[in-house]
């Protein structure tokens, strides 16, 4: 249900997973393109109905001194970020648990073409299903965001290990809504920097 004067009564926090070192990219992806990917992820979550938005840091250190965080964004540090994305996921869910939100939308920092329209579609699907579980699907492949109702958070944290994130908990579930979003974005994650343009050598 939605409040006529504001966001859904079952409000959703947005969590940007931005803790990794970006080894293949060459630098932490939270810094990619001068912070453009981070700003895109935050804007997608905010525009899609998430409030607050939490950014999980890791490889860049516990303070965002070198990161241009968008105004009003909360940040947390996953001290064990090097163990894999599961560490960032747990840190994000713990931070979300300290807010009034009853849902969380998980978004990695490296899917810059996923916009607010994708987030809004997946969030609407989660709010409409009893399980409170929904995820974006692009060309039949699972993608992001993933929206998870509060009642699942403890189990997701318990099952998350290494780089599996929420995959271990969500794989094989028949009560999760898969939301096709091919018409809105590619959903592709960026692991490598864009190739150079022009004839410079």
Structure at a glance:
The chain is 24% helix and 22% strand. The protein contains five helices and seven strands, in the order βαββαβαββααβ.
Walk me through what this model shows.
The chain is of the alpha/beta class and 201 residues long. It has one domain (12-180): Spore Coat Polysaccharide Biosynthesis Protein SpsA, Chain A, CATH 3.90.550.10. The protein contains 5 helices and 7 strands; from the N terminus they run E-H-E-E-H-E-H-E-E-H-H-E. It has helices spanning 36-47, 85-97, 116-128, 153-159, 167-170; strands spanning 12-18, 50-57, 74-77, 103-108, 133-138, 141-149, 177-180. A 7-stranded mixed sheet has the order 3-2-1-4-6-5-7, with helices on both faces. Helix 1 packs across helix 3 (116-128). It is globular and about 40 Å long. The mean pLDDT is 89.
Number of domains: 1
Strand content: 15-25%
Strand element count: 7
The CATH class designation is: Alpha Beta
* CATH fold call: Spore Coat Polysaccharide Biosynthesis Protein SpsA, Chain A
Low-confidence stretches: none
Order of adjacent strands in the largest pleated sheet: 3-2-1-4-6-5-7
N-to-C order of helices and strands: EHEEHEHEEHHE
Distance between the termini: 57 Å
* Nearest-integer average pLDDT: 89
What is the share of helical residues? Answer: 10-25%
Structural class: alpha/beta
User: Taking Cα atoms only, what radius of gyration do you get, to the nearest Å?
Assistant: 16 Å
Main sheet characteristics:
7 strands, mixed
CATH architecture: Alpha-Beta Complex
Number of helices: 5
The CATH fourth-level homologous superfamily = Spore Coat Polysaccharide Biosynthesis Protein SpsA, Chain A
Shape: globular
């Amino acid at each position: 249900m939605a409040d006529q004067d504001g966001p859904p009564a079952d409000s959703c926090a947005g969590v940007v997973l931005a803790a990794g070192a970006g080894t293949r990219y060459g630098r932490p992806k939270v810094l990619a393109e001068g912070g453009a990917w981070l700003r895109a992820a935050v804007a997608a979550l905010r525009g899609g109905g998430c409030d607050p938005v939490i950014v999980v840091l890791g490889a860049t250190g516990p303070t965002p001194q070198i990161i241009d965080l968008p105004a009003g964004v909360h940040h947390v540090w996953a001290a064990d970020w090097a163990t894999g994305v599961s560490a960032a996921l747990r840190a994000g869910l713990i931070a979300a648990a300290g807010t009034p939100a009853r849902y969380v939308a998980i978004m990695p920092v490296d899917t810059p073409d996923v916009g607010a329209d994708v987030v809004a579609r997946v969030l609407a699907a989660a709010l409409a299903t009893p399980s409170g579980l929904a995820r974006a699907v692009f060309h039949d492949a699972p993608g992001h965001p993933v929206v998870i109702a509060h009642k699942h958070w403890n189990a997701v944290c318990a099952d998350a290990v290494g780089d599996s994130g929420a995959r271990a908990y969500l794989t094989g579930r028949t009560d999760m809504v898969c939301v096709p979003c091919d018409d809105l974005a590619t959903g592709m994650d960026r692991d490598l920097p864009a190739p150079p343009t022009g004839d410079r050598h």
